[in-house]
Fold:
Amino acid sequence: MAPVDRAFLGEPVQYFRYVDDILLLGRTEAATKDGQALLLRLLGEFELEARTKHACPPMLFEHLGFRHYRRHGRPEMKVSASRVKKFQGNMRSLFPDRETADRRAARFAAIACGASSWS
Structure:
């Protein structure tokens, strides 16, 4: 996937990839569609297919357990309750003291999602 990653350097869209999840964000619908066409062509070279979803401003979309939206014209993000619970489980495996693990996970949730989560 490195050739795909490199192909988006300098493109007028923001390209984010986590394993097999790819997110393209463009300032205009045309830029986003051009980025999608490039992505589909590059994936085709690897004989891969994509399922696509579209969102146009005002943006509201979910990606990898994160909800992205606009509030008062500014981009905001919240973390899903399931993502917070998964993180709590990870913290509990790192810290045998459950209270310490929960406190650290709560601090993460407060920082990552503005002291709240959605379900």
Notes: The helical segments are 2-7, 29-45, 81-94, 98-113. The longest helix spans residues 29-45.
